[in-house]
Specification:
Helix content is 0%, strand content 29%. The chain starts with 7 loop residues before the first strand and ends in a 9-residue tail after the last strand. A hairpin with a 4-residue loop joins strand 21 and strand 22. The protein has a single domain, classed as UDP N-Acetylglucosamine Acyltransferase, domain 1 (3 Solenoid). The chain has 187 residues and is mainly beta. Strands 4-7-10-13-16-19-21-22 form an 8-stranded mixed beta sheet, with no helix packed on it. Strands 3-6-9-12-15-18 form a 6-stranded parallel beta sheet, with no helix packed on it. It has a 5-stranded mixed beta sheet with strand order 1-2-5-8-11, with no helix packed on it. It is globular. It binds coenzyme A (COA). The site of coenzyme A has 13 residues, from strand 21 and strand 22.
Length: 187
């Protein structure tokens, strides 16, 4: 949940400019976004007030909200939503349609029936550590830490911290196994 109003700019895309020969690329990047070098966008992307490191690849229909941070060399697949309060370290893979959450008990209105503003709720943080991977369709509840090189299975709902180099899956996500040098994952 967030409100934001900074004039968007069209940013460069895979073809090095926007719009290009195929027409407008609809990559909306607000002027307050801190963008690293070599960031690649697909079409229909919406970024505002966030920080994105070097060589990050961002798929179509991704939204990244203000005060979210993405490290270097991350892949953010299409249709994922990265909200305020989310920190993603270097080398993280985010699958398609991954949803982060920053308000555990959301409400549309305050006690007086008026639409809530930012002063009516507080952002709950989430940390995804270096080299972790989050499978497609996963939902990551707030106040969790996903450990280094952990893997979250497709469609999981993560409600608790995920240990480093572990694989979790399901709703709620539970430990399947640890990634050891004997039992690695391919690819
Ligand atoms: C979780 C995952 C990494 C596999 O891990 P694994 O340790 O090799 O797990 P296995 O395939 O050996 O399965 C172990 C058990 O977990 C279950 N399982 C596997 N993936 C699951 C998932 N996403 N959700 C729920 N259960 C899952 C299996 O059915 C199996 O259950 P069983 O023991 O009752 O038969 C993989 O299934 C997955 O979800 N990867 C994410 C892929 C993805 O989203 N990629 C995005 C880009 S396309």
């Amino acid at each position: 949940m967030s409100e934001h109003s900074v004039r968007p700019r069209l940013a460069s895309n895979d073809n090095g400019g926007a719009p290009n020969a195929d027409g407008p690329q609809y990559v909306c990047v607000s002027s307050d976004v801190k963008l690293g070098t070599g960031v690649r966008f697909s079409k229909f992307v919406n970024l505002y007030g966030c920080e994105v490191g070097d060589n990050v690849k961002i798929g179509a229909f991704v939204e990244i909200q203000k005060n979210a941070k993405i490290g270097n060399n991350c892949k953010i697949s299409s249709h994922s939503f990265i909200c305020e309060g989310v920190t993603i370290e270097d080398g993280v893979f985010i699958g398609h349609g991954v949803t982060f959450i920053n308000d555990i008990y959301p409400r549309a209105t305050d006690g007086g029936g008026r639409l809530q503003t930012e002063s009516d709720w507080s952002v709950a943080p989430t940390l995804v550590k270096r080299g972790a991977s989050i499978g497609s369709g996963a939902t990551i509840l707030a106040n969790v830490v996903i450990g280094e090189e952990a893997i979250v299975g497709a469609g999981s709902v993560v409600t608790r911290d995920v240990a480093a180099r572990s694989i979790v899956a399901g709703n709620p996500a539970r430990l399947l196994r640890y990634i050891t040098s004997e039992v690695e994952v391919s690819g």
